[in-house]
From TrEMBL:
Keywords: Hydrolase, Magnesium, Manganese, Metal-binding, Protein phosphatase. Residues 44-355 form the PPM-type phosphatase domain. Belongs to the PP2C family. GO terms for cellular component: membrane. The keyword Magnesium applies. InterPro entries: PP2C, PP2C_BS, PPM-type-like_dom_sf, PPM-type_phosphatase-like_dom. This is protein-serine/threonine phosphatase. Its EC number is 3.1.3.16. GO terms for molecular function: metal ion binding; protein serine/threonine phosphatase activity. It catalyses: O-phospho-L-seryl-[protein] + H2O = L-seryl-[protein] + phosphate; O-phospho-L-threonyl-[protein] + H2O = L-threonyl-[protein] + phosphate. Its cofactor is Mg(2+); Mn(2+). CDD domains: PP2Cc. It comes from Elaeis guineensis var. tenera (Oil palm).
Amino acid sequence: MSEAWMNFVRACWGPSSAQYIHSGSDAVGRQDGLLWYKDSGQHTTGEFSMAVVQANNLLEDQSQIESGPLSSLESGPYGTFVGIYDGHGGPETSRYINDHLFHHVKRFASEQQSMSAEVLRKAFQATEEGFFSLVTKQWLMKPQIAAVGSCCLVGVICGGTLYVANVGDSRVVLGRLVKATGEVLAMQLSMEHNVGIESVRQELYSLHPDDSQIVVLKHNVWRVKGLIQVSRSIGDIYLKKPEYNREPLYVKFRLREPFKRPILSSEPSILVQPLQLQDQFLIFASDGLWEHISNQEAVDIVQNHPRSGSARRLVKAALQEAAKKREMRYSDLKKIDRGVRRHFHDDITVVVVYLDSNLVSRATSNKGPTLSVRGGGITLPANSLAPCMTPTELSNS
């Protein structure tokens, strides 16, 4: 690790998060510095584990697990809902999704009296429209809200079937047992919408044949219009409605040429598949995890250790890898406070959901335990960070 970086890190350690260590009860999760975790809980089809580590000054990742009724009807359906919402540009969109998406799912499931891909599609659309309404109300007072958005990954286990809906680049991976060998193999279930993937770039080129600059390679990273890495999201209204891509929005978000059709989409990719007896567990996580750990590495960590604390174990493995990449000790990385920590890794959210085949097979008649848990973060006073220089300022000083 370079001396400049070490000086930068030392300057920014400032007040430690140690004063926030080990607070909270296990029912609502525990806080250990910038790490929030709930090591174990029970959902309709087995156990679950959940963990969040904060890197941004304001936590942009939001998450939830809901178990029990998936509608307002006594007749059901019943099941488990998991949501991972990885915000960008600020926390407003991911917080909005956390407050509204599941309610929309329940409303449309009540109307259809069942769970379906259409229920999830309508819930995503209603959430997008609701956030757009919020942007229109706040636009004049808070124009930058038009440039805030979020990835949105949802998984629903209901009636022995798994439903996955996704916009953005969060990911869900299934651990499936191979009976012949006893191995548990990783199967990625979600389709990602990141323009670093060739097929995603081709999709944008085909949707915008008259715009040769729809995707730009900038600082060795592919970005839509040179601005954003994901092609689908909730929010990011400045790239969906041209009337919000103008003053008083910051110049860096404004395009030179007005656009005629939405550049980004909120249409989710949806997968529906029956769960099999060999399906052991699901790992839902924001891209902060997958930047450092492969699908199979994550599955191996979950499979080869006790169920309790599996999500926290995955977060720790990612942080250890992030520290290794910067040639620093994991113990030193943990001392770096929020905001500055974002130079080393992103916010990371992980939910591990175990699949008990006996409970999965009971379909929608299994009401299971009713619970609602949201992934946490720490809320610190605005002046709790030590003033420190940016890496650019350091190199110039």
